[in-house]
Amino acid sequence: MAADDFVAERFRPDPQAVAGARRFLRRALAGLDGGPPGDDLLHMLIMAANELAANAVLHARTEFTVRVLIDADRVRIEVSDGNTRMPQPCLTPADATSGRGLAIVDGTGLQWGADRHAGGKTVWVQAPLQP
What we know:
By secondary structure, the chain is an alpha+beta fold. The chain has one domain: Histidine kinase-like ATPase, C-terminal domain (Heat Shock Protein 90). The protein is built from three helices and five strands. Strand 2 and strand 3 form a beta hairpin. Helix 2 runs antiparallel to helix 3.
């Protein structure tokens, strides 16, 4: 994949789709010109995007699209769904079985954010390709 390219894949709002999104990301990131990002960055990008895909399944409950965008300086992963409710990081009780996804994304050290658009939202993570 050359600079300024992107690839995208659409997924159903099914828990098994999260694993499909991870496989898609591994293939997309392996195809980068110059090879995939370093192992640590690759791991962080996939972990963060995994959480975003899981949030789309659990909270948006709509089909979602995972898009990988590459330019000369960065890689950006977007997860877009059909729910306009924006993500809200929160303090999760220690005994809760969910609710830590955005804290995990935040803990990766990657830049992330969310943008509302007609018909839904896009939550994204990005990182520079060079340190």
